[in-house]
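Exercise 7b. Backbone tokens:
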């Protein structure tokens, strides 16, 4: 079965690069154009949070730059605008990295290599007096630089190498899962730990989920191993192989299940398939404790047809 490309809001890689250049341009007109294009993307569908945050900071700086125009913006309004951008930025980067047990915002920020004073600005804007305009302006500049370094200029060759390594690790996981050796659990856990170390939450949708849905991974290469319309029940063997991995990823990244389901729906609906999925029932299957294994999982949830 031919792979189906993931739908993205931008029409081409060139448009994506153009928007990056506009947002970081010295020209206010081009930066305004970049902000408007990001808003247009948002109306088409889900876009990476880093793009949204970049546009928010650029828009705040533009309002600041032209605050003495026809429509004047007060000092307090600018502080509110910058503070809201910082609150959404820090929360948006931190929250997806929270696991089952809550971690401190500072510890997650450190893991993301985010300056600690970004967290301080977020805290002040939420619980204390709004930071001064001078501090917020400096914070905006550094936040835009951080987003550029951590997202926009990320090395593509590194990402491609990660994809190849993840494919290799998932193949190892499947091999160890089928191995009757008594050390199977230790081996599979080591593989899953390596995958977790390779992936950050922003790349779940762009790297991990597409690999999982390639033929030979969650979708068996052999058609006889797949579910059919007459029998949508998965074999116990397939459940035993893949359930621990999916459960581990769901524990590691709370957004994993949503991203997986969304990608599967896109593949099925692009083939004009009718989809009938009860999301709450399906997600509940994967959120059960390790001691409670599901007896049956709908193929429409785990496999593309």
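Sequence design result:
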């Amino acid at each position: 079965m031919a792979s189906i490309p993931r739908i993205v809001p931008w029409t081409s890689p060139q448009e994506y690069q153009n928007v990056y250049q506009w947002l970081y341009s010295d020209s206010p007109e081009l930066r305004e154009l970049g902000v408007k294009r990001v808003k247009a993307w948002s109306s088409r569908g889900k876009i990476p949070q880093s793009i949204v945050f970049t546009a928010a900071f650029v828009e705040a700086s533009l309002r600041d730059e032209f605050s003495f125009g026809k429509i004047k913006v007060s000092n307090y309004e600018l502080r509110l605008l910058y503070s809201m951008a910082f609150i959404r930025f820090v929360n948006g980067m931190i929250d997806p990295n929270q696991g089952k047990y809550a971690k401190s915002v500072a510890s997650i920020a450190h893991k993301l290599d985010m300056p600690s004073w970004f967290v301080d600005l977020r805290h002040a804007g939420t619980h204390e007096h709004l930071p001064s305009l001078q501090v917020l302006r400096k914070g905006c500049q550094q936040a835009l630089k951080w987003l550029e370094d951590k997202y926009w200029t990320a090395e593509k060759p590194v990402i491609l190498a990660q994809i190849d390594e993840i494919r290799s690790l998932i193949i190892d996981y499947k091999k160890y899962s089928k191995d009757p050796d008594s050390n199977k659990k230790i081996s599979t856990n080591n593989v899953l730990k390596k995958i977790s170390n390779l992936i950050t939450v922003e790349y779940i949708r762009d790297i991990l989920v597409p690999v999982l849905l390639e033929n030979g991974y969650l979708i068996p290469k052999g058609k006889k191993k797949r579910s059919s319309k007459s029998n949508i029940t998965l074999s116990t063997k397939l459940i035993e192989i893949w359930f621990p991995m999916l459960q581990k990823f769901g524990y590691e990244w709370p957004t994993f299940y949503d991203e997986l389901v969304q990608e599967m729906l896109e593949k099925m609906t692009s083939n004009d398939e009718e989809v009938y999925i009860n999301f709450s029932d399906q997600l509940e299957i994967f959120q059960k404790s390790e001691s409670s294994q599901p007896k049956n999982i709908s193929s429409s949830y785990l496999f593309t047809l």
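Instructor comment: Residues 1-5, 272-305 have pLDDT under 50 and may be disordered. The chain is about 65% helix and 0% strand.
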